Automatic annotation (TrEMBL):
It holds the Pfam family Glyoxalase. Residues 3-120 form the VOC domain. It comes from the Bacteria. This is Drug:proton antiporter. Transmembrane segments: none annotated. InterPro entries: Glyas_Bleomycin-R_OHBP_Dase (IPR029068), Glyas_Fos-R_dOase_dom (IPR004360), Glyoxalase/dOase/EhpR (IPR026275), VOC_core (IPR037523). It comes from Rhizobium altiplani. Gene3D superfamilies: 3.30.720.110, 3.30.720.120.
């Protein structure tokens, strides 16, 4: 069976986005080109950052209709990361709050992509 292993975000400037994700992920890209940057993620996934003006075919819609979620294990793991990202002055779209699935918050990357932090399912 085929399994997805690449997440691609369309970005205005891959170099700017790469700097953001380099700091956020604490790792270097595995591929860098003027129009595309890729980061290897744990679990066999890759995060690609593709210059929007070079995407073919061009996307038919804009806006935030999806999220990338970071599941952080451990007691107070979500709140600890919230404080770290808040101190880094990342744009917070949703402050730390409790929802049906537990504590969570959302920050935005330079292109407005939503990055949610929450606890793993138990």
């Amino acid at each position: 069976m085929n399994s997805p292993n690449l997440i691609i975000l369309y970005v205005k400037d891959p170099a700017t986005s790469a700097g953001f994700y380099r700091s956020l992920l604490g790792r270097e890209p595995v591929a860098e080109a003027p129009n595309f940057v890729a980061f290897a993620l744990d679990g066999g996934f890759t995060l690609g950052l593709w210059r929007l003006s070079k995407v073919t075919p061009q996307p038919s819609a804009t806006g935030s209709r999806a999220e990338i979620a970071f599941m952080v294990p451990g007691e107070n793991g979500v709140s600890t990361l919230y404080e770290d990202w808040r101190k880094r002055q990342l744009p917070i779209a949703q402050d730390l709050t409790d929802m049906d699935f537990g504590p969570t918050f959302v920050v935005l990357d330079p292109d407005g992509h939503r990055l949610r932090v929450c606890e793993p399912d138990k």
